[in-house]
Amino acid sequence: MPRRITVDVAQVRRLVGEQFPEWAGLPVRPVARSGWDNFTFRLGDAMVARLPSAAEYALAVDKEQHWLPVLAPRLPLPVPVPLAKGRPGAGYPFPWSIYRWLDGEPASADRISDPVRFALDLSGFLAALRNVDTADGPQPGKHNWFRGATLRTYDTLAERALSALDGEIDVGSARESWKTALHTPWDGADRWFHGDIAPGNLLLDGGELAAVIDFGTCGVGDPSCDMAIAWTLLTADGREAFRERLSVDSATWARGRGWALWKTLVTCARTRGRADEEAVDARRVLGEILSPLNTRW
To answer: Cβ neighbours of residue 156 under 8 Å, at least 6 residues apart?
Structure first.
């Protein structure tokens, strides 16, 4: 696991004051749900400062600075627009970024007003992203934890989780689904992907999809990683509309299920014996992935 550091308001205030004096007088406030890869702070009312929490996550800073201005005008929904790139200082060791603030609340099942409309809007966004020219795009690597590459990167983690969960879940079905995903080939055609299409990175306004944030794991390669959301958030009807709108073939769908499965298995193993929101949600998602109704496609 990456060795994460801590960042506080006073440190961010010093960084801004030293490197961007034109914004030195703006208030700095931590965002309530900051995420894991980056510490996020509101800078005034119109901007946000994002500071990687570890050296591995800092690898995405230059990528986002370069590619988000290229991607943004080609996408049907707002995405973060970098305004400035910060450098190490004030005791903080990594490059960091300032973006425009995007209004909205993180997606959740109870906040989505129309699940099918949401699924169609999301699939339309991903379809547009896939159509962006991949020339010179970032290939899978440590900068995005090998999203867009083979699922075999995560085989050891998945098998370790399956062993830990033996006797608590249907390990046979889970392992069969995992092996199917591992052995389902990709056609080798590079396509753009986001890499972390998850509830926290999908912003709602009035219950509708309004923006997509956090492109730290984006890249070009196999886009099946973006299919995981079909099981982690979408309803059955939404899942069907999502797949149809994107014209997802059975091979990509199987690999997408694998991307959802390995992470869910790891979370289930880590939260064994707990009954908090994270543990309950992981078991719910696992049920969605392994349901015969959802694996028939």
So the answer is: none
